[in-house]
Amino acid sequence: xxxxxxxxxxxxxxxxxxVQSVTEICKKAQQFLLNTKPVRTGLALHVSCSNSLxxxxxxxLDGFHYKENLLDSFYHPMLHSQFRPDLLEPSLPLDGYRVIxxxxxxNLDEGNLRDLIEMWVLGGGTWxxxxxxxxxxxxxxxxxxSPFGSLETFAGITLKYSIPCNRENLFPAEWKDGTLWDGxxxxxxxELKGAEGLAFYTEDARELSSLAASLTRKSGKAGxxxxxxxxxxxxxxxxxxxxxxxxx
Length: 248
Description:
This protein has seven helices and eleven strands. By secondary structure, it is of the alpha/beta class. It folds into two domains: 1-37, no CATH class; 43-244, 3-Layer(aba) Sandwich (Rossmann fold). It has an eight-stranded mixed beta sheet, covered by helices on one side. Strands 5-7-11 form a three-stranded antiparallel beta sheet. A hairpin with a 2-residue loop joins strand 9 (212-219) and strand 10. Helix 4 (66-80) packs across helix 7 (233-244). The N and C termini lie far apart (49 Å).
């Protein structure tokens, strides 16, 4: 009964005239519209509907909502920085992309992404993965050989501690240029086993002190980089412009 141009009795609805007006505008702009094609920016953000359901069924982090956090922590900051990412389901091809963000993707086997993304990275792509990525099996259970499915081996790290916390600034860290970050909600502390640290927890971080909070590992001409932290809007924009997006 709702959201239609014609009613169930076949009569025009109240917006019928508006639809006709828009149609005329489109006709006038026909050539412009038909001859305009979107330009791929080389930047993508992974989005998964089935992954959203996994978060709904598991209370991994108190107050966490997949869609809201994906928008607030990644998509909107990119737009505000004048970057336009494509939104990709994990099964879609990665050809043509230079930088791909994969946050909050619990299982990397969806759409065979684990194999696809590793081949893409080795071929020259820059992958920013995490937080809360690769921490569940396809069945939604925890991995028993490692906290991750394969990220420890691929990124050259060992996860020593993961500490969820909603209190502000409990585990302070600094980027390698000395600036403080604005992390919150979930804190991973990594030992480096071949990766290069981008940020480290300070002495005030207690259990996480001196561990890496963010890191990168290059493979040939490729770079695999793990955020492994929740950053608020401006902090994420600063991070992306400093370490990720500017060279692209």
